[in-house]
Amino acid sequence: MLNKDKKTGKISFLIKNTSAAFANALRRAIISEVPTMAIEDVEFKKNNSVLYDEIVAHRLGLMPLKTDLKTYDLIENCKCNGAGCAKCSLKLSLKSTARSDQIVKASDMKSKDPKVVPVFDETPIVKLLKGQAIEFEATAVLGRGKDHMKWSPGLAYYKYMPVIEVTKTPKDPEALAKSCPVNVFDVKKDKISVNDDNLYKCHLCGACTDLEPGVIKLNESESNVIFYVEPFGQLSAKQMLSEAANIISAKMDALAEALEKKK
Ligand SMILES: [Zn+2]
Which of 68, 74, 114, 190 has the fewest beta carbons under 10 Å from its own? Predict the structure, then answer.
């Protein structure tokens, strides 16, 4: 693990002795295969706000919901055959009449399952003027990012680990170290060296090679990859990774089984 941001849940880590193909398989599994919960249907009982039903429904669909993968199944794998039951879908409801101008927020929705609630309580749904009312029942289901982005659990991306070599002593080590926007270099007694703790921050901008050509050699490692995961909030970065690993492994097992049958 290189870095973990406690507030946002973003993580980055180093994968050694790998290839871009593997990192990309992991990336694609995370963004398009790992399921999360999102609102798919909304039944309006009342809505005389300024926003049409369709716009409110669209906003609700894009609202990240905390996801409990242990309790829920994808609707296509559920025993109810797509009819919708407590194992594959969840109802969230909202009923609000404005006594004065107010903003209806995500936290005003009532979920039948306390484990599946909006990630951000303060997300505005609609603004109601005095006397306006909104009432609906929404159905959330598990889905995958490949069907709609609203089900994607977050962002995943990677880059090659930078390899920085100091080939000779620069004329002005201080100036060279300062040219780096992410402080990759340390200077001690006029000697410049690479700070290993900051090395992963290098985005190969090349500023250090411009100042005194020939001093610094910049390269990318062919086999070490820095991987980044940024959750939207439905799942933690760790859950996104472990679920993606399970999905890749299940796909490989299915391939092996199919090959076995072909013999
Ligand atoms: Zn079901």
Answer: 114
